[in-house]
Every structure is written in C-alpha cells, then in structure tokens.
Amino acid sequence: MAKPSGEVEVPNKQVILKHHVVDGIPQESDMELRLTTITLKAPSGSASILLKNLYLSCDPYMRLRMRHIQGSYADSFVPGEVLYGYGVSRVVDSDHPDYKIGDLVWGITKWEEYSLIKPPWQLFKIEDTDVPLSYYTGILGMPGMTAYVGFHGICSPKEGDKVFVSAASGAVGQLVGQFAKLLGCYVVGSAGSNDKVELLKTKFGFDDAFNYKGEESIDAALKRYFPEGIDIYFENVGGKTLDAVLANMKVHGRIAACGMISQYNLREPEGVHNLMLLIAKRIRFEGFIVFDHYDKYPEFLKKVLGPIKEGKIIYLEDIAEGLESAPAALVGLFYGRNVGKQLVRLSTD
Amino acid sequence: MAKPSGEVEVPNKQVILKHHVVDGIPQESDMELRLTTITLKAPSGSASILLKNLYLSCDPYMRLRMRHIQGSYADSFVPGEVLYGYGVSRVVDSDHPDYKIGDLVWGITKWEEYSLIKPPWQLFKIEDTDVPLSYYTGILGMPGMTAYVGFHGICSPKEGDKVFVSAASGAVGQLVGQFAKLLGCYVVGSAGSNDKVELLKTKFGFDDAFNYKGEESIDAALKRYFPEGIDIYFENVGGKTLDAVLANMKVHGRIAACGMISQYNLREPEGVHNLMLLIAKRIRFEGFIVFDHYDKYPEFLKKVLGPIKEGKIIYLEDIAEGLESAPAALVGLFYGRNVGKQLVRLSTD
Ligand SMILES: NC(=O)c1ccc[n+]([C@@H]2O[C@H](COP(=O)([O-])OP(=O)(O)OC[C@H]3O[C@@H](n4cnc5c(N)ncnc54)[C@H](OP(=O)(O)O)[C@@H]3O)[C@@H](O)[C@H]2O)c1
Ligand SMILES: NC(=O)c1ccc[n+]([C@@H]2O[C@H](COP(=O)([O-])OP(=O)(O)OC[C@H]3O[C@@H](n4cnc5c(N)ncnc54)[C@H](OP(=O)(O)O)[C@@H]3O)[C@@H](O)[C@H]2O)c1
C-alpha cells in the first residue's frame, strides 16, 4: 500500500517467542528473529507514539512470561508474537500530547527496532542525559528502583546490620550491596564465579563474597561469614539458598523477597523446609514488586544521580550488540553468563 | 530430716519427661508420673516463691521442647525432669517482696502440684477474679495475648478483610476469629471435625468453616470460601495448608506465622512450594512470638475483660481433671481431641 508522503516504511527486526517454555532453561531456539516492516508514523487519532528502541533490558522475570504462571503479576508472552520488556527508546513520532519527537524514554517497549506503543503505557521521560543512556535499563531504571525500594523500603536497614545478598553481582544485587555499604552495614554477597566474587570485593565494596558453586554447603558458608547471624537477606535466588539463609537468620531478621531465579526454570518449585524458623526467629519475609513503588522514582533519582556522577555508586553493565544477540543474552542470565546488568544495544542514535 | 516447726512436707506429684521424642506424635508413655515430696516453704534468703498449681495449660509448643530443635526460642525439656509450662497458681509461701501468700498468678510453672519458683520468672499477677480463674491459661493468658498481638499487631486488619484461620476452634484460633468479626471482617476457619465446624459457625460467629479432614483439596475448599482470595491468613498449621493458602492469597495479603502444628511431629518439616507467590502477590509473611509483646498485656486486659463479662467474647475450654490426666491431654492436642482450650485442673482451692 502506498504511504502518504512523509510516512517512511522501514525494515523492523523483531524477536518472537515461538512457543511456551514449560520447564528447563529457555533456549535461543525458543525464540526467532522475524523481519517485518513498520511505518514510522504514530497514526493520527491513535494517541500512540512511535519509538526507536536504543537499548533493551534482559530481565529474569521475562522467563516467567515464557509460560503460563498461575497467580503471577505478569501475563504470558503470546507465542508467535514479539517479546516485550524494559528498554530505552527515542520518540520518532508522536500522536500524544505528552510526548514529542526526540523525547527519550525508558519503560516497557517491545523487542524490535521500532515500536508503536499505545496507551496505557509504562514509560518515564529521561531528563538527565549526562550519564550513559543505557543506565536507564539498570541503575536508573527498573533494577535500580528494585534495589532501592527493596532494600530501603522492605528491609528496614540500619547501620551495623549484617546483610546477605544473593545473585549479588547482577543488575539488582550490585546496587543492594552498595546501598547497604553506604548505610554502614556489613555486606556479604554470593555469586556464581570467582571473577564475580572478586568484583564484589574489589569493585562494589562488599565486605566479603563467596562463589556458591564452589561451596559444598551454603549453610556452612553463611556460618563462616555470619557467625552471629544475618539481619537482612535480600532474596534473589530462592530454593536451597533460602533454606540455608533461614537457618542463619538472626532473631527479628528481615527478608525482602525480590526474586527466586533458581526456581524460574523448574516445572514445580522446590520445597522450602525451614519456614518454622520464621516463628522462632520472628522474621518478616516480605515480597514486593518494583512497579508498586514507581511513585518514588523522582525521589530515587534525586538520591542517586549525584553519587553516580561522583563515582560513589558504580554500575557494571554487560552489553550485547544488536537485536540478533538478544535471545542469547536473555538465556545467558540463567547460566550466570552476564557479569553485571545484561542489556542489548540496538542503536546509539 | 526433721523440719523446723511451721514447715510442712507434703506429697507432690509431678509429670516427668522420660526421654526426648524425635519424631512422631508423643505418647503418654513418653512421660511418667512421679511421686515426690515438697516442703511448703520458700527458703529464707532464696527470693523464691512457693506455688500451689491450680490449672496447667497444654500448649502445642511443648512438643518442640520434647526434642532438641535447632534455632528455636525454646529450650528442650530435660529427660528425667519435670515438665514446665504455663499455669495458674496460688502463692502459698513467699520469700520475695513482690509476692505475698494468697496472691494468684499466671505464667510459667511446673507440671506438679506445688512448685518452688526462683527468679527470674515469667509471672503475671491476677487482679480480676470475677471471671473463671482457668481463663488465665487461655483467653486471659498466653493464648489470648497470642491471638491479640498476632491478629491486631501482625495482620494489619481492617473492616471487610477476608480472613482465614486454621486450627480455628483451638485456644488461639477461636479468639482470632472473634477479634476479626468484631472488626467487621469476613472470617472462615478450618478445623478437624464436623462438630468443631458447627461450633465455629454457631458459637464463635465465624461466617463459615470447613472440616479440612473431609476435603479432598484444601485449595478447592479455599476457592469455595474465598472466591476473590484471602487478605489475611492466621497461620497455625503450616505445611500443605500453607501452600494452599499461598495459592489463594490476594495481592498485598498478610500472613501471621503463629504456629505450624502439622510440622511439630515430623522429623524433617515438609517443603513449602508456593513461596514465589509472596513476590507475585506482595505478601507479608511475618513470624511472631507472644512473649515479645507482653508489655501490651495491661492494654489487652482492659480491652477484653469487659466484652468477656458481657458475653460479647466467648471462650471454650476443654478441662481435664487431675495431674494424672495431663500427659493424655497434652498428647491429645496432636490428634485434635481438644475442643477449645485444653487445660488441666489440679485443684480449685
Ligand atoms: N520484585 C521485583 O520487582 C524485581 C525486579 C527486578 C528483579 N527482580 C528479581 O531480582 C533477581 C535479580 O535480578 P537481576 O535483574 O539483578 O538479574 P541478574 O542478577 O543481573 O542476573 C541473574 C543472575 O542470577 C544468577 N542465577 C541464575 N540462575 C541461578 C540459580 N539457579 N541459582 C542461583 N543464582 C542464579 C546468575 O548469577 P550467578 O553467576 O551469581 O549465578 C545470573 O547472572 C531475580 O530473581 C529477578 O527476578 C525482582
Ligand atoms: N507464636 C506464638 O507465640 C504462639 C503462642 C501460642 C500458640 N502458638 C501456636 O498456635 C497454634 C495453635 O495453638 P493453640 O494453643 O490454639 O492450640 P489448639 O488449636 O488449641 O490445639 C491444637 C489444635 O491443632 C490442630 N491440629 C493438630 N495437629 C494438626 C495437624 N497435623 N494439621 C492440622 N491441624 C492440626 C487440632 O485441631 P483440629 O481438630 O482442628 O485439627 C488441635 O486441636 C499452634 O501452632 C501453636 O504452636 C503460637
């Protein structure tokens, strides 16, 4: 169909989910690249905006969307359709009064080069651009807010608290550790390789760290690093790690249930056995989801932009190049291949 | 040995733990009656008091004391020694300035007719005696406080909340349900017999109740009574019930972890599988122990004494007669033999 003048049709690569993935780590072959076209126009009267996607974020929760999971906040991805998730994008056309061409946004977009997004959307305007734009997929975006509201909002932390963080070198974990250190806590993290452990100790300022894959018993490791017990556990992993942590919590401890990535690829989640200790130790175990707390985003930005620019909070990214590499980057999260926040760069302009 | 005049030696029956009980429901034969004697005198300079025990309380947590349980707030009972627990007693001699002969107290005493108790003790003076004295083992004692601080303090209840209580006809559960009704909640309880279910509906004013032993699936039962989900779960039972409840909680629900009686007799606790739902549903799951909250006892008494006397809060007791019946009464908790608060009457004078 001929386009009215001024409307440009361009190629648009997409990442498609081929089928639901019930159990097991998803494979690249569960997704496929599809070449389509798109008209770079937000149709008049549609109130939509047309985005050029610059960065896409690979997030563990996307695994849950690859299947039907009962009672989850997340809908399933639809087989045959393009994946969606967080990203950083530039507005290339707008039929909505709140957005104009050239605006930068972060929020939910689709895994493709250009996306036509209709309201209601979950988008935040990017005002501060003297930090890397990619940071809005991480420290200045959803994972940053997750660390902030999860740690400060759920964990009731105070100076001197003993804090344990699992998946500690990742998008969320590296920040939780730094927030805890800024408050004067003792912080130990676990991660899945010796290199990550080194990073935690040397780059992110954790007091200590261990490679959980090299430990015969997580319980024994925790006893080594927390001989008097754990006040705060920032839970990213679940399963056996959670059981070991429960056995090592202090009385009146707090557990922020952020994620349980070790369970995402199982058909049935493992059983956790030590829950009676919640009573004996009067533990508060509280789940949260970042999007309930986005009203605190401006407050968060104000708190972290300065320290980031001064180098007092640092952030490590793992950037894959091009949409073609996105499926592998997403899958890599479940093998721990990412070192720092995993994202995909589609374009720099 | 001849006693100084005025010191009377009397027979004193005791209940002794014969050996630790690792798993399985404890048997009467794990305990034995021992006949000793005691001098009815608080030795001068000992700062102790001599109690005549009138009522003894049978409480599920005593099962945990029958073995070594790691990380528990409770020490184990010592094989060969007398059991201890909550009771109502009269001071028959005192070498302590705070207590005088004739004072009535409730708190930790021993499973025997007379007990010499040394400080530090956990005793509360009974001032109000125009209610049944036995109530101080239940509604006016530890279980009453448990229901009060657990429900009002941990569950953040509000009018209209949908509340589920397990072990609902017991010492704690019958009160949680009544407190919830007084606040205008919708309350459903589960219990282990049809008679208990009838009691819940007719005597305690629960909106509904079911016999969990007659249900093929607790999940299905919960879906029947809570088609829109549960705001508050008062957890007395643990295990499979907890898993089913998690699947039926509403977003932002609260679970007060009070007890997990279905796990107390197992060598290893069962696994709980649905903990990822804590995140998806942003649930707060919080353990508590009543003795952290005893500072609120005066406030509690002020709130409940009136309604009890006016019959607006009722309390059902299951009273066994004589110390000889105490082991069977304790064991009976784990078969659900008690209908209401299980206690043992030793004496009425
Ligand atoms: N509640 C919320 O709103 C919210 C928001 C964002 C994220 N989250 C959750 O937060 C957690 C961390 O997310 P993130 O974005 O920061 O991811 P990430 O840590 O950057 O990447 C995932 C990491 O998890 C570790 N991992 C993978 N499989 C594992 C297993 N079986 N056992 C233990 N560790 C495993 C790997 O690191 P190792 O090499 O160390 O194994 C991997 O690098 C996830 O559970 C996620 O779902 C929750
Ligand atoms: N956190 C604290 O400070 C605190 C203080 C007091 C009590 N608690 C806990 O609160 C709970 C209730 O105590 P309570 O004094 O009110 O006891 P209770 O309910 O008066 O007596 C125990 C009842 O539990 C039920 N039960 C026994 N085995 C069970 C099983 N395997 N599965 C399901 N139900 C079972 C039985 O009733 P059915 O016939 O209905 O099965 C039995 O009558 C216990 O878990 C206790 O440990 C905690």
TrEMBL record, chains A, B:
It comes from Kalanchoe fedtschenkoi. Coiled coil: none annotated. GO terms for molecular function: 2-alkenal reductase [NAD(P)H] activity. This is Enoyl reductase (ER) domain-containing protein. Keywords: Oxidoreductase. Pfam families: ADH_N_2, ADH_zinc_N. Gene3D superfamilies: Medium-chain alcohol dehydrogenases, catalytic domain (3.90.180.10), NAD(P)-binding Rossmann-like Domain (3.40.50.720). Residues 49-344 form the Enoyl reductase (ER) domain.
